[in-house]
């Protein structure tokens, strides 16, 4: 049951309904829906090292690409119109060199990720092949010697 | 020769709660005119603390002295503890239950299980057990360790540190900062904070930021999961700061609008006291030793959903009346904490050893 204590006194009766009312009034259903889906998706426990490695690669894919479009242009709330215009002009001027840096960094990140994924795939293929060979050898060793007495 | 009171530690780092507690106890001993030294393995001693901590290999206890073991998980310190002819005191700071780590780090879970199993022999070998909270003492009582006395975690405000300007600049910008300080470990339930922040950021205040400050080394897989969650929720304003220096922490507390923790298991939780000392409203789950640390101050909750917790964050930050009441309760609690006399408390416990 949801309960709240404020400065040492239980305040559940007043505060839990208040929080529910506030949440219901905002109705950001999409946000709640996203949270419900995201939590089990990413937080389920990786059962082994392989799964953990896969999740780290997923993380690299997620963070490895810099997107300057995501950065909002400063709108200059609370500052004068002239200063806001200056900030926006500087922002536009800086975008050109920043774009170049981002493009180069993204190229490096993509190469690194591709190399890592390729090495991992190759390593897993080799391990699978070696396991097959070990299994075949063990099976041959356990088999009775050929021929009859 | 005067009596010595020595502290056997697993390691020493500035900002670490156990290290700070041992340091405060050492200061309390010195106030009484007792010799007191901190011992820890050099490999686990922060380089800038090397002057105030001696190598565990140098420890030589004498009959009549007192040796205080601060961490049952540390094999070297426990070995010295069992071998010493001095009075043995075990300072219990709690060990996180292994189940929190299963799936995330099974080998650590096994080590924690082993450490909990080893607690009883350590407690039985001790002449006294001093728990740093009543919650921890109750936990020991559950394992039939009846001789535990409570000496709440010692806290003393350091001389004001200059806030790290780089951290201050990075976490400034007029956004409402919700701060969490602590190791990134599964018992801290940081994912619940992120989900609640998701609601708060999307529905209540987009000009906000969740700062998670703490070492990621405890459980790297859990830390990676948290980053994935923040990404999946499209929350670039969840900032993972890593282990913060004292100057970095000063900057984080100075810029925080709210300190929040959803931790499901804490023996005491020193960051709650640090936040109160910094004048930051505190929101915490009502569990473990946290209600004791808050001592009737701050905001506590049980079983809130992410939207409810997100709305509560919003109220604690934006509701002036609530904020004033919280800060007043926390100021009163800090008066109590600052009025403690650690030297007297320690003297009473030491007298019981004779």
Describe this structure in words.
The complex is a heterodimer of chains A (149) and B (354). Chain A has 149 residues and is mainly α. Chain A folds into two domains: 1-44, no CATH class; 48-142. Chain A has helices at 12-26, 29-43, 49-63, 81-142, and strands spanning 3-6, 9-10. Chain A has a two-stranded antiparallel ribbon. Chain A is flat, with a radius of gyration of 29 Å. The model of chain B has no long low-confidence stretch (mean pLDDT 90). In chain B, helix 6 (190-204) packs across helix 11 (306-318) and helix 11 crosses helix 12 (320-338). Chain B has helices at 17-31, 75-83, 106-125, 134-142, 165-170, 190-204, 220-232, 246-254, 270-277, 290-294, 306-318, 320-338, 342-351; strands at residues 4-8, 35-40, 53-55, 66-69, 87-92, 128-131, 148-150, 176-181, 208-213, 238-242, 256-261, 282-285, 299-302. Chain B has two domains: 4-154, Rossmann fold (3-Layer(aba) Sandwich); 165-338, Rossmann fold, CATH 3.40.50. Chain B is of the alpha/beta class and 354 residues long. Chain A binds chain B through residues 1-8, 15-16, 18-20, 22-23, 26, 28, 31-32, 34-35, 38-39, 41-43, 45-47, 52, 55-56, 58-59, 62-63, 70, and chain B through 103-104, 191, 195, 198-199, 202-204, 221, 224-225, 227-229, 231-234, 236, 286, 291, 295-308, 310-312, 314-315, 322, 325-326, 328-329. Strand 1 of chain A pairs antiparallel with strand 13 (299-302) of chain B, so a sheet runs across the interface.
């Amino acid at each position: 049951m949801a309960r709240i204590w404020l400065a040492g006194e239980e305040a559940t009766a007043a505060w839990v309904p208040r929080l529910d009312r506030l949440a219901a009034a905002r109705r950001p259903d999409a946000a709640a829906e996203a949270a419900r889906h995201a939590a089990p998706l990413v937080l389920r426990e990786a059962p082994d090292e392989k799964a953990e490695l896969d999740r780290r690669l997923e993380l690299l894919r997620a963070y490895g690409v810099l997107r300057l479009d995501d950065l909002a242009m400063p709108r200059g709330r609370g500052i004068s119109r002239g200063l806001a215009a200056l900030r926006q002009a500087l922002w536009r001027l800086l975008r050109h060199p920043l774009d170049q840096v981002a493009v180069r960094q993204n190229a490096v990140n993509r190469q690194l990720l591709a190399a890592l994924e390729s090495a991992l795939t190759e390593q897993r293929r080799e391990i699978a092949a070696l396991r097959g060979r070990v299994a075949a050898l063990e099976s041959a060793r356990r088999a009775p010697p050929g021929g009859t007495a | 020769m005067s009596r010595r009171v020595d502290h056997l530690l697993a390691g020493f780092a500035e900002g670490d709660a156990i290290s700070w507690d041992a340091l405060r106890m050492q200061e309390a001993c010195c106030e009484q005119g007792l010799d007191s030294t901190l011992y820890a393995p050099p490999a686990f001693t922060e380089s800038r603390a090397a002057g105030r901590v001696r190598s565990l290999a140098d420890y030589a206890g004498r009959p009549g002295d007192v040796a205080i073991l601060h961490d049952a998980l540390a094999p070297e310190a426990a070995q010295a503890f069992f071998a010493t002819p001095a009075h043995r005191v075990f300072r219990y700071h709690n060990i996180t239950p292994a189940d929190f780590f299963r799936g995330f780090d099974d080998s650590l879970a096994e080590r924690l299980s082993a450490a909990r199993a080893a607690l009883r022999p350590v407690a039985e070998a001790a002449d006294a057990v001093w728990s740093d909270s009543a919650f921890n003492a109750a936990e020991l009582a559950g394992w039939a360790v009846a001789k535990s006395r409570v000496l709440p975690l010692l806290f003393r405000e350091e001389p004001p540190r200059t806030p790290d300007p780089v951290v201050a600049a990075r976490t400034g910008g007029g956004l409402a900062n919700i701060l969490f300080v602590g190791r990134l470990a599964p018992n801290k339930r940081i994912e619940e904070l992120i989900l609640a922040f998701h609601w708060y950021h999307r529905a209540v205040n987009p000009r906000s930021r969740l700062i998670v400050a703490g070492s990621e080394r405890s459980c790297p897989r859990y830390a990676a999961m948290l980053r994935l969650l923040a990404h999946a929720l499209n929350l670039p304003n969840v900032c993972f700061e890593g282990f913060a220096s004292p100057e970095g922490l000063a900057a984080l507390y100075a810029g925080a609008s709210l300190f929040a923790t959803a931790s499901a298991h804490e023996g005491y939780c020193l960051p709650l006291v640090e936040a109160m000392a910094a004048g930051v409203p505190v929101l915490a789950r009502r569990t473990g030793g946290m209600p004791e640390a808050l001592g009737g101050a701050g905001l506590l909750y049980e079983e809130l959903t992410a939207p409810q917790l997100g709305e509560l964050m919003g109220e604690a930050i934006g509701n002036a009346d609530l904020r004033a009441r919280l800060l007043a309760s926390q100021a009163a609690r800090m008066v109590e904490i600052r009025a403690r006399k650690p030297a007297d408390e320690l003297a009473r416990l030491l007298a019981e050893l004779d």
